[in-house]
Fold this protein.
Amino acid sequence: MLTRPWIKLLAGALLVTALVLVVNNVSALTNGDAVHCGEDVMEPGDQCYPANSGFSHGRDYAEMRDSETHGQVVGYAGVGVGVLGVALFVGHVIVRRRGPG
């Protein structure tokens, strides 16, 4: 019988990584094209002074837009990693049912 426990471990690690990436960037994935400073929608020329961010100066509209764009890219990468983890797990189950060779 074909046993490869590392495949299940890798698939699980990919799924956990994907979950972390998506959950940490869910706001960037769900707000569309709007740029937010906290709960407020920003417009070009606005400054953002987020509470507890560690920034001594405000961040302008372009910086916040770039930050949200980065969050979207990381979130979508998380979705891709999750799909890869699911495909790896499903492939392992299919090969295991058919048997070796």
Observations:
- The first helix runs from residue 5 to 24.
- The two ends are 10 Å apart (CA to CA).
- The helical segments are 5-24, 26-30, 61-98.
